[in-house]
Write a sequence for this structure.
């Protein structure tokens, strides 16, 4: 990782872009610690993928927690197929789950 002042990057932009494209990370120091990091596309994509993975793992962790607390509802294949119908009405199991979790029929939460 290289640290450089913004004026140096401005004066030698192509040179710095070449270094970055070769895998170097450049920290551009600015006043009041408002530093800027310049990275190449591959590193940016890797960071975005890591962020998406972390968000996905957090969803899985919340799902596991909900399952452990019993805050889940299970359906049979037949029940799921029935839900595809245009005229499907919620079963007692669904209504009870919604009631326990403060879910109102119009989609708003009462919690």
């Amino acid at each position: 990782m290289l640290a450089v002042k913004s004026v140096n990057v401005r004066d030698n932009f192509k040179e710095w872009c070449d270094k970055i494209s070769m895998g170097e990370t450049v920290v551009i120091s600015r006043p009041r610690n408002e530093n800027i990091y310049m990275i190449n596309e591959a590193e940016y994509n890797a960071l975005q993928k890591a962020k998406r993975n972390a968000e996905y793992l957090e969803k899985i962790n919340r799902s596991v927690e909900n399952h452990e607390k019993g805050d889940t509802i299970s359906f049979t294949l037949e029940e799921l197929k029935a839900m595809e119908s245009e005229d499907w009405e919620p079963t007692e199991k669904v209504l009870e789950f919604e009631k326990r979790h403060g879910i109102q029929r119009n989609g708003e939460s009462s919690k």
